[in-house]
Amino acid sequence: MKNRVVITGLGVVAPNGVGLTEFTKAIKSGTSGITFHQELKDKGFSCCIGGIPTISEEKKSEYLTPLQLRGFNSTSILYGVMAGIDAWKDAGFSVDENSDLDYDSGIIFGTGTSGIEKFREAIYKIDDQNVRRLGSTSVVQTMASGISAYLGGILGFGNQVTTNSSACTTGTEAILLGFERIKNGKAKRMLVGSSSDSSLYTWGGFDAMRVMTYKHNETPEKGSRPMSATASGFVPGSGGGALVLESLESALERNATIYAEVLGGNINSGGQRNGGTLTAPNATAVQKCITDAIKDANISADEIDVINGHLTATSKDALEIENWTKALQRKGTNFPYINSLKSMVGHCLSGAGAIESVASILQIKEQFVFPNINCEDVHPKILELISVDKIPQKVIKKNIDILAKASFGFGDVNACVIFKKYSEF
Amino acid sequence: MTKEEIIKKLTTIVKPYVQNEEGFKNLSEETDFINDLEINSANLVDIILDVEDEFNIEIDNHAMEKMLSVKATVAVIQEKIND
C-alpha cells in the first residue's frame, strides 16, 4: 500500500516577494522583482540586471541567532533557512530548539553551489597564506549540504537530511525525491525545496556564456521575456522555496490545511545524446519525462489544466513548447494554459524549481493563473503551436484541478511533477 | 595588562558563544569553556581568532590546544603579550 502525499506547508523567498502573502500578491498582479545592480556593471557584466530578494537585518535575526549570524555570508543558506522555517510553521508546527528529535520528518533541500561569497572569503585568506583565520564557519557555510544541515538542526529532524543538486532541475527534483520517500513509507513528512545564492560569482559564468540578456539594462522590469519574440536571454535571479510534503494520513490526523496533492512525476536525463548536450536538452527525453510523469500520476494528458513551464527566455522556449505539444498531443486552442514565473523573478537557477512550484501550488489553492509579463509579442514559432489565449497576460480565475510543473537543467536533466487540487477521493 | 583586565576582555569575547547563561554569570578563573559554558567545540577556534584580534597576538597550534579554560587562556595571553 503506497501513501498518498499532500502539501501542507509553503515558504518562499523570491525577488518579487518575501513570504507567502507578499509573494501571492506579487504573482497575481504581475509584479517584477528584476532591478538594475550597479555592482554587475562595475564588474563588467554584459547583463547588469537581476532578481535579488529584499531582506532586512532585522528579518534575518528572526530566523538565525546572533551566534549563527557571526561571520555569516551565505545567501543560499539564508534563503533556504527562511523558506524552510516558514514552510514548517505554515504547516502548523512550531520551531523549538528544545524539541524532541523527530524521526518521522526529514529534509531534501537542494542547491547548485552553497555560500559562494563565503567561499570567496576563504579563498582570499588561503591565498594570503592565512588559512588559520578561516574560523569555524567556512566549512558549514560552503558545504552543499549546509542548508539542510542548518535546517535539520533548527528543526530537530531525525529522518533523512540531505541535499540534491541537478542545476535548474534541483527544486523540482527535491520535491519528487521527498514524495517518493513518503509514498514508500520511509518518512511521514519531508521538508523539500531549493535555493540559490545572490552573487556575482554565481552569475558570472552565465554572463560569459552569453545566455543572459544584455539588452535591457535600462529597462530591468522588461528584461525577462519568456515566450516573447524579443526574448534575448535569461535574467539571473536568486532566492529559495520550500514545501512540507506529508502523508495524507498524517495530514488528516493533524487536521492540517492541505494545499494540494502530489500525484506523481518523473525524473530522467537525455544522456547528452540525440541533440542533448551539457547545456541543451535532448527533446525526446524531455517529452518522455513529461509522458512518464503523466503515467506515474495515473492521469491522462487531457486532464492537465495548467502548465508551469521551465521557459527561461532564451531561444529554447519555442522548443520547450513544441515538446509539450508533442508530449501532451495537444495544441492550438486545445493546449492547457501555460505560464512562466521567470517573467517576474528571472531565472533563480537552482532555486527556480522550488520557487516556481510554490507559485504553482498557490495557483491550485486559490484557483487562478498568474500572468506572463513581457510577452505582448509572443514568439511566432510559439504561435504556430498554441493559441495566444493559452498564454495569459493578465491574471485569470480558473478552476484548476491538475497542474504540471517541469524543470530542465544543464547536464541534460529533466523533472516533471503533477500536482492536483486536493479532494478526498 | 593585569589578569583582571584580561579576564574582563575575555568575558566580552566569549559572551556570544555561550550556551549556558548560568555558567556565564558565575564566570571565574576556574571556568571551563566546554563544560561550564557549553561552548560548541567548533566555536573555540573562533574565540581564539577573536582573542588574537583583541590582544594583537598570534597563537600557535600548540598554545591553542591548551586554551580550554579561562585560567589557561589568560596564561597563554600573558605569555604572548610579554613575548
From TrEMBL, chain A:
Its EC number is 2.3.1.41. It comes from the Bacteria. It catalyses: (3Z)-decenoyl-[ACP] + malonyl-[ACP] + H(+) = 3-oxo-(5Z)-dodecenoyl-[ACP] + holo-[ACP] + CO2; a fatty acyl-[ACP] + malonyl-[ACP] + H(+) = a 3-oxoacyl-[ACP] + holo-[ACP] + CO2. Keywords: Acyltransferase, Cytoplasm, Transferase. It is an enzyme of class 2 (transferase). It is found in: Cytoplasm. Pfam families: ketoacyl-synt (PF00109), Ketoacyl-synt_C (PF02801). InterPro entries: Beta-ketoacyl_synthase, Ketoacyl_synth_C, Ketoacyl_synth_N, PKS_Beta-ketoAc_synthase_dom, Thiolase-like. CDD domains: KAS_I_II. Gene3D superfamilies: 3.40.47.10. Belongs to the thiolase-like superfamily. Beta-ketoacyl-ACP synthases family. Homodimer. This is 3-oxoacyl-[acyl-carrier-protein] synthase 1.
TrEMBL record, chain B:
InterPro entries: ACP-like_sf, PP-bd_ACP. Pfam families: PP-binding. It comes from the Bacteria. Residues 1-81 form the Carrier domain. SUPFAM superfamilies: ACP-like. Gene3D superfamilies: ACP-like. This is Acyl carrier protein.
